[in-house]
Amino acid sequence: MAASKRRVHFQGRCCAYARIVPFLLCLALFLYGRCANGETTRIVSLLPNFTETLFSIGAGSMVTGVSDFCKYPPAATQLPKVGGLINPSLEKIVSLQPTAVVVSASQHELARKLGELGFRTFALRSDSLCDIYDAIEFAGRLTGMTTAAEQLRLQVRKELSDVRDSCTSSGKLRVLIVVGRQRGSLQGLYAAGRGSYLSELVELAGGMNVLHESVPARALSKEELVALNPEVILDFSVADGEPSKFVASGERKVWNALRVMEAVKRDQVYFFPDARFTIPGPSVVETARVIEHILCNKTASR
């Protein structure tokens, strides 16, 4: 009986594939003709930072589909969703008839499948500030709005330079940048390394990342946290959409388990409950300003 149920389930999937595959192939052949001239008029973006960039340069009307995590600007939340980083829907993407699809550099399999179907697909990295500048420049070339993109790129560079120049203290606080952990626990904690844009923001805001390794992020044990002994903790792991005071009060207790660390002992744990602070796009300027405000005030009071 169990085997029979498994066969039925398997046959059902085959039937579903039998319906979907011809649809995808026909649609891909139809779109191939439209895309042959390289014109970009309909973009599906699976990267929150690229979506934000497109709207920032005035190309928001070209965005026809976004990932589940594209929440900025608010207009992006009204667009069709095509899944997330680990669960993108190929069928939904194809149904939107894009002339270009922008995915993460880690979405190799999705990029391969879209390429086989004839879709122009571009895989971008979002680790460093250099990646952010490259993505802005690429958005301009993809949409034909090169002037607006160049203006945005220069504006972001200048405003980040202003943040760097605003803090003149010679002392550098040792900072831990938390980018992931289980809610209500320090289990599964991930911290940003010096290969990340968040580490670059901390450095230009007058701090020093305690995780010296040139990786975007890696897991840390409690023993490693104690050994690193940061003076300030910037916690970007709290969920988006919850009242910040509630999140901060509940999650602050989690850190009290490590009061041996200077940052916890001196109540120097800061939370960033707004997901926009973790988007590696034009909004990095706002993130840098908040970090600079925290670090420079603490440095001055040393």
TrEMBL record:
Residues 42-302 form the Fe/B12 periplasmic-binding domain. InterPro entries: ABC_Transporter_SBP, ABC_transptr_periplasmic_BD, Vit_B12_bind_prot. Pfam families: Peripla_BP_2. Transmembrane segments: none annotated. The keyword Signal applies. GO terms for biological process: cellular response to iron ion. Keywords: Signal. This is Vitamin B12 ABC transporter, B12-binding component BtuF. It comes from Sumerlaea chitinivorans.
